[in-house]
What does this fold into?
Amino acid sequence: AGVEKISEKEVASLGAPAEAVGRIMRIKEIGGYDDFFLNAWCETNVFGGRGVGDQMQDFAEEVGPLLARECGGQVENPVLGLEF
It folds into this structure.
């Protein structure tokens, strides 16, 4: 029941992207923060064996744009002009 406990205490945010963003924004509001740093931690053993890379991509594609919109920031990354 470890995952349920940390989710209940909102130490971790599990669920649909909109739910995760809602929890993150609640923490921001309760803390009275104008700016904040978010550390997204992906774990291989907790989320049904999905790879960390898959989780990071899901976060970037599904949670990131919603969070940016909620915080009034940019949704699209700027073109940097770098070619590899």
User: Anything to note?
Assistant: The radius of gyration is 15 Å. Residues 52-70 form the longest helix (19 residues).
